[in-house]
Amino acid sequence: MDDDDILARIAALVDEEHSLAGDDELPEERRRRRQELETRLDQCWDLLRQRQARREYGEDPDAAAVRPAPEVENYLQ
C-alpha cells in the first residue's frame, strides 16, 4: 500500500463518517460504526505518518505497518 492508496482509503472513510454525522441520536449500530470509522482513520493517519518519517530518515516506507487500534487510540494529540 502506498501513500496514494492510504489517502484514498482516508477519503473513503471520511465520506462514510460524514454520512453518519449530524445526528445526535444515532441508533447504536450507527454509533458503533462511526466509532469504528474514527479508529480506522486514526490508524490510516498513523500509517501515513510512519511512512513519511521513514522516508525522511532514509528508511523503507513500505516497512511501516498498521498499529493496533488500542495503541493508536491512546496517542496524545
TrEMBL record:
Chain intervals for the UniProt region annotation (Disordered): 54-77
Pfam families the record matches: DUF2630
Source organism of this protein record: Nocardioides guangzhouensis
Protein name: DUF2630 family protein
Lineage, broadest ranks: Bacteria, Bacillati, Actinomycetota, Actinomycetes, Propionibacteriales
Lineage top rank: taxon: Bacteria
Family matches, as InterPro entries: Uncharacterised_Rv0898c
